[in-house]
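TICKET: design request
STATUS: open
ATTACHED STRUCTURE:
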């Protein structure tokens, strides 16, 4: 099977440093992404994901690259039964998500005149990936919410 990926670019009226802070500071991340990470952000360090009242701990959830404020990369989350229950995923969807190999999310942050270019590249999917389908819908929402938060002071409201 061929490997597939998802890439999405958005321009934000904020400095690269401010975008970096939003991606790594739990007090900001929780506002636009509805989750946080516990980590020291050192390359190779594990990341605990806190989402929907569930703490997802896995030794394979790690920071891959930390080049402040230019590039951040980490392995994607582990899909546990507790996560599936908390977010309302069906048993079938959760099984499909959990059966896939771990993917990688990479943020590239580049100055672009008076704004900053923010690109997410999510890689490591096989054809027909359920995780790829989820991030294809999810990343534009997350990054639009980040943009709104940094430009207006208010993240997007969902649900």
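STATUS: resolved
RESOLUTION: sequence designed for all positions
ATTACHED SEQUENCE:
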């Amino acid at each position: 099977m061929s490997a597939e990926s998802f890439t999405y670019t958005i321009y934000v009226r904020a400095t690269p440093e401010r975008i970096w802070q939003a991606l790594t500071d739990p007090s900001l991340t929780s506002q636009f992404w509805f989750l946080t990470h516990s980590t020291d952000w050192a390359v190779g360090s594990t990341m605990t994901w806190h989402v929907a009242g569930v703490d997802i701990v896995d030794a394979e959830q790690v920071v891959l690259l930390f080049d402040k404020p230019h590039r951040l990369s980490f392995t994607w989350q582990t899909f546990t039964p507790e996560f599936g229950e908390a977010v309302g995923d069906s048993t079938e969807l959760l099984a499909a998500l959990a059966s896939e190999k771990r993917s990688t999310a990479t943020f590239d942050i580049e100055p672009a005149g008076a704004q900053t270019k923010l690109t997410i590249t999510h890689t490591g999917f096989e054809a027909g990936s359920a995780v790829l389908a989820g991030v294809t819908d999810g990343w534009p929402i997350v990054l639009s919410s980040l943009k709104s938060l940094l430009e207006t002071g208010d993240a997007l409201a969902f649900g």
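CLOSING REMARK: The two ends are 36 Å apart (CA to CA). The CA atoms of residues 23 and 29 lie 6 Å apart.
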